[in-house]
Structure formats: C-alpha cells, structure tokens
Amino acid sequence: EAGVAQSPRYKIIEKRQSVAFWCNPISGHATLYWYQQILGQGPKLLIQFQNNGVVDDSQLPKDRFSAERLKGVDSTLKIQPAKLEDSAVYLCASSLVRGGDTGELFFGEGSRLTVL
Amino acid sequence: AQSVSQHNHHVILSEAASLELGCNYSYGGTVNLFWYVQYPGQHLQLLLKYFSGDPLVKGIKGFEAEFIKSKFSFNLRKPSVQWSDTAEYFCAVTIYNQGGKLIFGQGTELSVKP
Fold first, then answer.
1. B75 to chain A nearest CA, in Å?
2. Cα–Cα distance list, B8 to A15, A50, B12, B106 (Å)
3. Å from A34 to nearest chain B CA?
4. φ, ψ for residue A84 (rounded to 5)?
5. CA–CA separation, A19 vs A14, rounded Å?
6. Confidence of residue A102 (pLDDT cuts 50, 70, 90)
7. Is A52's pLDDT higher than 80?
8. CA dihedral B100, A105, B51, B34 (to 10 degrees)
9. What percentage of chain B has pLDDT greater than the value 70?
10. Interface test with A, best of B23, B25, B42, B43 (most A CBs within 10 A)
11. A10, A112 Cβ separation under 8 angstroms
12. Do B101 and A48 touch (CB under 8 A)?
C-alpha cells in the first residue's frame, strides 16, 4: 500500500516569502493531520481535517498559516509571510478513522522548511 | 493544558544493554498512550499502543511499555538493544473521545554503539 506522500521534501526561502506544502494521504483515509516539528521538539498539531471539514485548528497561526483539503483527499498547507521561527519539518499524517481511536496515524516523510 | 514529558533528550547505550525511556503525561482522565519511532531518514511509525486492559503492552521489535496509572507514566523498555534501534522515540497521548489529536513529548534520541 502506498504511504503518505508529501512535497517538496526541502524548501529554503527568505523571510516574508510564501511557501506551500502538499500532502496526498493514504487512499481511503478520512482524517488528515498537519503537524509542525521544530528541531529538538516533538510534533505539534497544526490542523486536523475529517474528510474536507476542519476538526481542530486551535494551534494554527491563522494570521499567516492556512490549509485546505478540497474534495476530502489532497491537502495544502500555506505559510504567508514566513518568519524565521517557521523553520521546521511539516509532517502530514492520515488515518482511516480518528487516529486517537485506533492509534494508527500514518506519517509522511515531511517537508523541511528553512527560513533565512 | 495536557502535556507529555520525556525525561531524557539523548541516551547512549552499547549493544545488548537494557533500555528504559521515561514518559509522563499530565491529564487525570482516560487516555490512550503510544510510542512512535523515527529511524534515521525515515518517517514516524507506530511502535506500540495502550488503550485498556493489561498495562504491559508489547510492540514490534521486542519493545514493551508499562502503563502505571498512579504515576501517569508509560515507560518504554527493551531488554537488549541492537545497533538498529538507533532512532528517535516519541511518547504520545490522546485524550479519550476528544477527536484523536496526538499530543507528543519532545522525543528521546537513542544512539546504540556497536
């Protein structure tokens, strides 16, 4: 079975520029998550989708971050404008149902963002 | 706010040594508990999980974890580590019936010397 696909794997931008990350979850997975992992820290949830609806975006910095999951499949996470502190790995994960009810979140390899 | 604490940031062991990684969480209600592992250059993957029942759970590759409710702990153990166990280990928690959001600890990097 194909895993969670993310692109790009690496991105370097200047501060105040914009960037977008793309995620294709495992086929049939209803729930999709975006996590931010800053170096030396554990992943922190940014946003959770159930199909194409937002379940939790309480930790998403909405003044600069946005995410969408059109048609309940692929998802895009955008940062505009980027700040130095946004340097991190952005992880996408998916699960068949709500991940905490089964424990099985499947993670992509992540998109590493460096903001200069 | 709910949080997860992992006691060690970096652990260095020789092969065949025993491993115990500490994890504590702060929440008094019902939780689901997990350990995830990230091998170098790979994605995060589930190592083991606890929902209910026997507090001693076994996962892949000889790992096990014990849930001690009175101590709010879920420590990971392995009797004899191998060089291939070199990885970063994350403890995580979900609050029962609250949408499945995983709350991660900061991770413990394990280096096993051959």
1. 17
2. 33, 34, 10, 9
3. 11
4. -55, -40
5. 10
6. low
7. yes
8. -110
9. 96
10. B43
11. yes
12. yes
